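Kindly inspect this one:
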Amino acid sequence: VQLVESGGGSVQAGGSLRLSCASSGPTFSRRCMGWFRQAPGKEREGVAQITTSSGSTSYADSVKGRFTISQDSAKNSLDLEMTCLKPEDTAMYYCAAARIGFPSLARYLYNYWGPGTQVTVS
């Protein structure tokens, strides 16, 4: 499985960004897809996930109502629309894939990771 993120950048507080993740590899290895982030000095945390077969989603409380995760199965693409961005959203954002077939934002359950894309909110 290969994952490559794009779309990061710098934005002012209150602004929006859209992250994309191009994925490839066996579909059984990508039953659950997620976005995680890691700020300097902090642990990596789950932001949003989607179960690819059902399309069901879940979000961290800190981003509910502001972030939206979506998938384009035909394009093997996973997106994260981020609105009303706050300085505390500043982090490296990672796309991840898991073989599990149930929704989870537990980092240890994810098997594959992209290199990350930086998001800076000032």
